[in-house]
Amino acid sequence: MKKIKRFTTLAIAGVLLSGFARQVSAQGNTVTLPTFDVTLNGQKVENEYSEYPLIVYKDITYFPMTYNTTRFLGVETNWSDTEGLDIKKTGVTGEFDDYKSETKNVESYEVSIPTFKITVNGKVIDNSKEEYPLLVFRDVTYFPMTWRFSVDEFGWDYNYTEGAGLVIKSTVKKAEEKKVEEKKETKTEDEYKDHSKAVFYNGYYYVVKTNGKDYRLFKENLVGQESKTVSDKEIKDIVQDGNKLYFQADNTVYYYDMDKAEVKTELSNATVKDGKIVSLEKDIYWVNAKDGELYSKDSKKLNEGATVNTLEKKDNYVVVTFNDDKDAKYKLLVFDKEGKEVYKLEDPVEDIKIKDNELTFLNKKTDKTQSIKLDR
Asked: Where is the secretion signal located (predicted)?
């Protein structure tokens, strides 16, 4: 009975959102990664190294309804502070993106339960009364695909066997096919296709598109509707940092301010490696593509001879870990919003967390968990 329950009330999940951090309950709900294969529209899903993997909660499978995942399955999502999360079936499918990550996922994680308003095809979902509530994991909303969601609402077909695992097929057509049917004409060479991962911010999607020759940053609110370029610069990749979208062009790093709808120069004569750049109040931290080392906004090296492993913001701090290079002195650096270096460590670490100005991590050299109170 447990297997039947697991696969007849499978799960799908949510969209990258901005501004809902205060509308989720405290953590304490544990999820695991599925141990079976999952195939979506013929595409096998890679969970082990995915930024947004499928998860299992109370024996129910959940998967992330990110921008690209929803479009791939013919579903559109929209978010606003007043109306919450709105999910609709569109009948148009987009490109697949498995959101690959360099970090291997572990077996279990903690998730939160959202309390914001949720609407599916015009029907309001009372998450507090759901047997399998929507979840939030890595700032992405996940919700269970019961029969009414997968079949009644979205019109999907799914099947599970021991050999093939979970197989889901959406009964939708590709965007190009839909346009041909609606316009009764073939696609022109000037039409743009999605090239990058999409960023959702304040009710709009931002995505780099290409027509095969040029690459431009577009802003749109729905699939194929109100889509327009925001810059005439050649943009191939974007990295979000709050209200900023960073991109490179001609050895210059720019950012697009999504609140002010302006493009501004951030760094000159600089090439950022793998999109590793973050800003925090008074400074910019970035990884130079030439040597892989950490630099400040004024192009000053912050840990001579050490190549960066990870660079991220955590609770109003910038946390940087470094590879075990021969000339690397420090393996961990932490900066506050004033640009002050508030902690450094020569030992390698993992499982870094910051909460209420307290830094916690596993020291890989001593194999012990350490907690440090950070000065503000």
From this structure: 1-26
User: What is d(CA 277, CA 320) in angstroms, rounded to the nearest whole number?
Assistant: 11
Q: Could you tell me if residue 136 is inside a domain?
A: yes
Count of the separate structural domains present in the chain: 1
Is residue 135 one of the residues assigned to a domain?
A: yes
In the block, tokens 């470094």 appear at 322
Closest CA to 350 of 366, 361, 359, 338: 361
Q: Which domain, by its residues, includes 161?
A: 2-173
Distance separating alpha carbons of residues 328 and 252, to the nearest angstrom: 28
* Residue 281 φ/ψ, nearest 5 degrees: 55, -95
Position of tokens 């148009």? 92
DSSP for 317-340?
EEEEEE---TT---SEEEE-TTS-
pLDDT, tens digit (0-9, with 9 covering 90-100), for 202-232? 878 888 888 888 888 888 875 545 678 888 7
- Contacts with 325 (C-beta within 8 Å, 6 or more apart), sequence order: 305, 306, 307
pTM confidence score: 0.51
Please give the structure tokens belonging to residue 275.
């999109």
Q: Is residue 242 part of a domain?
A: no
Is 372 contained in some domain? no
